[in-house]
Design brief:
Layout (H helix, E strand, L loop, with lengths): L2 H24 L31 H4 L7 H12 L5 H21 L2 H4 L5 H16 L3 E20 L4 E17 L5 E21 L8 E6 L1
Antiparallel strand pairs: 1-2, 2-3, 3-4
């Protein structure tokens, strides 16, 4: 054999040896390779996230203490109506609070009647009528809700009636004027803080999604 052919055969032999060596070390890859099975005796390099089934419902415990009567009542509401969310209710109650307060202050009760229980609406009507009989008018501007919290919750499993009591701290400006337009109470520039405790009620699992204001206690 001539020298170039010998050199070629030697190089080919070396190449085959290297390929076989690499295959024995790295293995072969065909298609989508399954991930390696974990070694039960090896320690993880970092803590794994643990999913705890049946843990506390943060949608509830963010607002009331875990295992409290209010938490149990809210959990019962969610079992009857899985789409119900405490966070959604709290946000909705903030909007309802502003709407109802301003409707009452301005005497625009027709706008808020669908959101009031009958006895609450009748009380509002009496107060607004008494104001008008005295010739009083109120000018009010709502600044915002400073605080919102769930005070209590109750659920009747026999009727599926739910009640949630909310505590609001609102800020607004309010001026009371007499028949002549003179200010007899309040200030157009001074912000007053108003604290209210309201109870909303609804029958869970029904097609009517509206909560009604059934009690007020300032």
């Amino acid at each position: 054999m001539n020298s170039p052919l010998i050199q070629l055969l030697v190089l080919a032999g070396i190449a085959v040896f290297l390929i076989l060596r690499l295959r024995s070390v790295l293995g072969t890859r065909e298609g989508f390779e399954k991930p390696p099975l974990p070694n039960p005796n090896s320690k993880p390099s970092r803590p794994d996230f643990e999913v705890i089934e049946g843990g506390p419902d943060r949608d509830i415990t963010d607002y009331v203490p875990e295992n409290s009567e209010a938490a149990e009542a809210l959990a019962a509401m969610k079992r009857i109506e899985p789409s119900f969310g405490v966070s959604d209710f709290v946000q909705g109650s903030r909007g309802a609070y502003e709407m109802i307060v301003m409707g009452f202050e301005r005497g625009e009760l027709n706008d808020i009647q669908p959101f009031l229980a009958e006895d609450v609406f009748d009380t509002f009507v009496d107060v607004v009528a008494a104001r008008e009989d005295q010739g009083l008018t109120i000018e009010a501007d709502f600044i915002g809700v400073r605080e919102t919290s769930v005070q209590s919750a109750e659920f009747d499993p026999e009727t599926s009636r739910a009640e949630i009591t909310m505590r609001f701290v609102g800020e607004l400006t309010s001026v009371v004027r007499d028949r002549g337009g003179d200010i007899i109470e309040g200030s157009a520039t001074e912000i007053k803080r108003q604290k209210d405790t309201w109870t909303f009620a609804r029958t869970m699992g029904t097609d009517d999604p509206n909560w009604l204001l059934v009690a007020t206690d300032a």
